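input
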Amino acid sequence: MFKNFIGGDWLEGQRVSRNINPSDTRDLVGEYAQADVAQAQHAIAAAQAAFAGWSLSTPQQRFDILDAVGTEILARRQELGDLLAREEGKTLPEAMGEVTRAGHIFKFFAGEALRPTGELVPSVRAGVGVEISREPLGVIGIITPWNFPMAIPAWKIAPALAYGNCVVFKPADLVPGSAWALAEILSRAGLPAGVFNLVMGRGSEVGATLLDDTRVTAISFTGSVATGHRVAASCVARMAKFQLEMGGKNPMIVLDDADLDVAVNCAINSGFFSTGQRCTASSRLIVTDGIHDRFVAAMAQRMQTLTIDDARKVGTDIGPVVDQSQLRQNLEYVAMAREEGGRVVCGGEAMAFSKDGQPGFYMRPALIADTDAAMRINREEVFGPVVSVLRATNYEQALALANDTPFGLAAGIATQSLKHATHFKRHAQAGMVMVNLPTAGVDYHVPFGGRKGSSYGPREQGRYAAEFFTSVKTAYTQA
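output
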């Protein structure tokens, strides 16, 4: 059994969860300890006790530890990628890419530990100096989703530690394997006991404890909109700092002048790779009249060539959906779109087995045309390989449709017009904009985050991470 890591010790839990491979439900990845409320409180206490020393650690100490973590992750990318693909279902190349990104994130923030920033400025009063600096917050509760079980924990844990905070990490129940592997690497990296803690367990117990405990100074959360609202309410009630990354209903505009191959490649990648289980996935394709029919036909033709199979099998383009519940939800949205007048161009069916007869949660990606902005398929996040097409008469209408959503994470456009690309970058109501690129796929050294109902609080990743994981102090000195 794989145990929790609390206060420098590996501890058994009160229960055990079984981690099942979605590509082959006969395959047990492992059994993982489930912490209860008492163990979550133990982890918080350990982190609180460790904070006084760790907050005053040297930049060199933090660099050495985080750099060593990044180095080991990169050296083991094949092994860790295989584990990630096995438990989450994204293809092995995608999983190895995610692991590589996690390694790079730790190395980036190792460097940030050596680049503390501050300001010395004169006061408006004679003889007084002003020093502006950043200090760590304290105990950070980190709650992460199942769809990026290495990269998202990395881009929260690495900056939290780099800036001198202590961490209590609660991963998603569906993907404890990647979380445990990351924790095991951190446990050997030289961190003092209690600085980093792993508490696998139910959100109703472990997550709720992190939200409500006054010793937890801040919460960094990525997950569903409903849970994000719960995080916000709990943190506001006790005046804790919080950071939310939630849903997306990301648009990709395809204009008449777009290169058809580029547009199709962007749409296929954005909508269907990683089985569509990305918050940055383009699930709404907004296509102007002049290219609409050719684009839909080209999409359908390309979709027929995609191989849906075991995530770790060579040649697989799209792996399984993460579990039965998510598969059921995907199929319900396809049926709902049909009932509301959408036309399923191709796909949308469940597949009980892989090509080799393995039982798993497989689904043929769905392309749904003839939809309008009022349909639920265009209003609500599906979080699966289900993509809708909306027709627009021109760029102006396409932009209006793109912005007609309660979300605002990512937005893309396929066009050869510099005028329209420039206008779109300024007027798309999203935190991240891509031109002739997939919306899913971002760099680790620049800010990540959205607007409207997608995000709340300071941006994640890059140097902007300091905005959340530190507090600004202004000190005055009389000469």
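quick obs: Residues 4-246+454-478 form a domain with the Aldehyde Dehydrogenase; Chain A, domain 1 fold (CATH 3.40.605.10).
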